[in-house]
Amino acid sequence: MKREVRLFVLPLVTLLTLAAAPASSRGDTLADRLAAAGSKAAAGRHLEALEDLKAAEFELWRKMPAMESRRVVLVTEEPAFFGSYQPKPDNRYRVGEPVLIYVEPVGYTISEKDGLYRFLLTADFTLVSGKGEILGGQRDFGRWEMTSRQPVTEFMMFFTYDFSGLSSGDYTIETLIKDANSDRTLALNTPIVVE
Predict the structure, then answer these.
(1) Burial 146-162 (b: 16+ CB within 10 A, else e)
(2) How far is CA 106 from CA 16, 65, 77, 111, 119, in A?
(3) Mind listing the pLDDT tens digit for each residue in 19-57?
């Protein structure tokens, strides 16, 4: 418990230091938002500090040069919501067993219009044998779209791949997540073993 408190206090001290620095040394909007959050937290205005931190997170999100993923995890069941996944202990599957993949993408484009935030992601996949042969795939097999009054930065994607008829061997599932509002993509290569 003490370690958690120390980890929280150090960033807070850093934030307070930023808040005390002159505006010219703070520089960009991100630093200003972090400084404001530190000042508000020190004054006991925690809800306002959280709002400033969310604004800083979104500012940083918009500056990301590419899409990335926080997590790409083989799972044992469909997750109910963000972060509620059950990791599979290995990448081995029986013939006919579906492959379930949980993904937390970040850095996708969130557009804003008339007070609403929106994103749209699509996905392609290709199945590749252990010898590098393309066995099949599909373009635009999935579509994830969300509109909200707040920027959604905690978002999960869930893929169920059912490769009935595959023989035993090594395979790679190549999933390409595409941002419909930009040219950003996220390539995920998931090796599996069918036994």
Answers:
(1) eeeeebebebbbebebe
(2) 28, 11, 22, 14, 12
(3) 444 443 444 578 888 999 999 999 999 999 999 999 999
Extents of the domains making up the chain: 2-63, 68-194
Q: Report the predicted TM-score, pTM, of the whole model to 2 decimal places.
A: 0.81
Q: What is the DSSP letter of 99?
A: E
Chain mean pLDDT for the chain: 87
Q: Which two tokens stand for residue 153?
A: 């930065």
* Topology, domain 68-194: Immunoglobulin-like (2.60.40)
Contact present, 58 and 153 (Cβ < 8 Å): yes
Taking CA atoms, 30 is separated from 56, 120, 192, in Å, by: 5, 25, 41
pLDDT > 90 fraction of the chain, expressed in percent and rounded: 82
Whether residue 151 contacts residue 62, with contact meaning beta carbons closer than 8 Å, is answered with no
What are the tokens at 86? Answer: 């059950």
CB distance 27 to 8 below 8 Å? no
Residue 141 contacts residue 161 (beta carbons within 8 Å): no
Is the CB of residue 129 less than 8 Å from the CB of residue 173?
Answer: no
- Give the model confidence (pLDDT) of 89-120 as tens digits: 999 999 999 999 999 999 999 999 999 999 99
Amino acid (1-letter code) at residue 191: P
Amino acid at 97: E
Whole-number CA gyration radius for the chain: 21
